Amino acid sequence: MFGLTAPVRGHARNGRAKGVVYATDASGRRAGLAGVKVSNGLTFATTDNAGRYSIEVTDDTTLWVVKPRGYRPPANAKNLPQFFRHHVPAGTPDDDFIFPGIAPTGDLPASIDFELEAVDEPDQFRCVLFGDPQPYTVEEALFYSRDATEAFADLEGVAFGVGMGDLVGDNLDLHALYNDANATSGFRWYNIVGNHDIEFMSPTDAHADASFRRTFGPSTYIFQHAKAHFIVLNNVYWKGFNGLRRDGWPQRGNYEGRIRPEQLELVRQYVKDVPTDEAIAVLMHIPLFAFQGEDSVHTTPQAKELLEILSNHPHTFSASGHTHINHHHVAGPDRGYNNAQAKHHLHHNVGAICGSWYTGKPDRRGIPYSTQRDGVPRGYTVVEFDGPRFTVGYRKLGGRPDEQMHIDVSEVARRGEPLGVSVNVFDGGPLSTTRLRIGNDGSWQTMTQTSKIDDNYAKHRAESVEWANAAPGRRALSQPVVTDHHWTIEIETSGLAEGLHVIEVETTDAYGKVHTGRRMVRLQDDPVNFATIDANSIRTPRTASTP
Predict the structure, then answer these.
(1) Which of 1, 73, 236, 418 is deepest in the core (most CB within 10 A)?
(2) CA separation for the pair 378, 371 (Å, rounded)
(3) Domain check: are 129 and 155 in the same one?
(4) DSSP line for 466-501
């Protein structure tokens, strides 16, 4: 993948690419930039004082420049950074492929140059991450367009966004509509290849990402922004064409999570030159670690080797998509990350912006609510940087941006009996704490982190099954899954007065940010008698009424 040497791609002809990395000043003069890294996907060349580099290539290489701090490459009309050049003289193979790859580029040019523009990059900035837009049809691509336009156009201080793979659902022609939507945001977009962004007719892993490379550039690459370094890894390994389905389309599940040896070596080479007072973020599609014991389709066996490489750096995190849930994995020495200052590395599975694959009833805009399988609303993640320090937080689509939880409690309960409360903290994890109190003068009580399904989602899922069965073409929400971002408690109510009470929940996330939520509960000595108020409702027929 991503422009490797002959033994990996199977190409025999080697050569050397030469060129200049330069910036253009106000008068239009080119000035070479020293100390900039250029990669062939296996190693790096560093430009000399005149901005010149020289690096080995094969007849299937994508060269890319590592964007340094204070500079950026040009972007095309879709806000996609143009930091790469393909060298594929004969083009990528397309025999029996459904989607086109890279067209023939011809002989190696005498000079492959990269232009960078000088820009201001303050230490404080934001970036947007999300997994799995995954539209399978034009209609679903338009759902994403409406979401992206509403969510991203008004965000402030965002330097760039990253689509974390499964940008589309198998139909790679939809990449164009995905890019159209992102272009409206006003900021730049980097993208990651997912298991639904590859060519399933490819007989091997070698060219499964050819169409992705044609549209987006290399599927493994690195760039710097301010004091943060972003390492993007293609960790989807395609095991090869596995026959056709009964509908005539190729089988699509013959993949696994894998960081290839050459990728680990590339990361090792790069990280050794990163100062320890700068941040490193590693972004991929398939999570590093499995949740609830899932197999290699949902995890990356080389996670420990990767984290060992990062261990000298205290300011690191990683993120993925793929699973359509929010989930935190905390990695310490037992998982390869051994840094006395940081103590742990946090891996964020950031969930899916399409939720449960655009299923369930439509909202007021006609877009399916499509809550994720863990009960978390569809949304995206915002990472806020201040120098090497960062916070990672989730935002739901629509509604209040500060809404971080769903509190599940009975509306009316019997006073004197224990009151069960369950809270789904959308971006909670092992490093979060959650507590509860009733009333402003109530004492805080610590809640217990619990692995469970979201009961509210399970209820809505059952309703969606009935709704879907009522008419053709409707699709019910997906089955709920067990996750650990739930907190539960039973409250003793005998000491509380009869009537309405405010339940306040406070959760502190992995980065020390505090989020609050509130719900009301009415305590009644006799809830049945309380319900008799409805006897005088005009919606309740009177005993002596006539038609």
Answers:
(1) 236
(2) 6
(3) yes
(4) HHHHTSTT--PPPPP--EEEEEEEEE--TTSPSEEE
Contact 54, 71 (CB under 8 A): no
Dihedral sign for Cα 478, 481, 485, 488, please. Answer: positive
What type of residue sits at position 332? G
Look at residue 426 in the predicted model and tell me its pLDDT. Answer: 97
Write down the residue that tokens 């469970």 correspond to: 452
pLDDT tens string 182-205: 999 999 999 999 999 999 999 999
pLDDT at residue 402, rounded to an integer: 81
Q: Where are the beta strands (DSSP E) in 5-157?
A: 14-24, 30-32, 37-39, 44-46, 52-58, 61-65, 71-72, 84-87, 114-118, 124-130
Last residue of a domain, one of 396, 415, 442: 396
**What count of other Cβ atoms lies within 10 Å of the Cβ of residue 415?**
19
Asked whether the beta carbons of 217 and 193 are under 8 A apart, the reply is no
Q: Would you give the distance in Å from CA 18 to the centre of its chain?
A: 36
Mean pLDDT (whole number) for 265-274: 98
Same domain, 256 and 383: yes
- Model confidence, pTM: 0.94
* Domain end marker among 396, 428, 452: 396
Type of residue at 238:
W
Burial (CB < 10 A; 0-12, 13-18, 19+), residue 290, is buried
Torsion of CA 521, 525, 526, 527, to 10 degrees: 0
Is there a contact between 73 and 115 (Cβ–Cβ < 8 Å)? Answer: yes
Instruction: Give the tokens for residue 112.
Output: 């492959």
User: Where is 330: in which H helix or E strand?
Assistant: strand 326-331
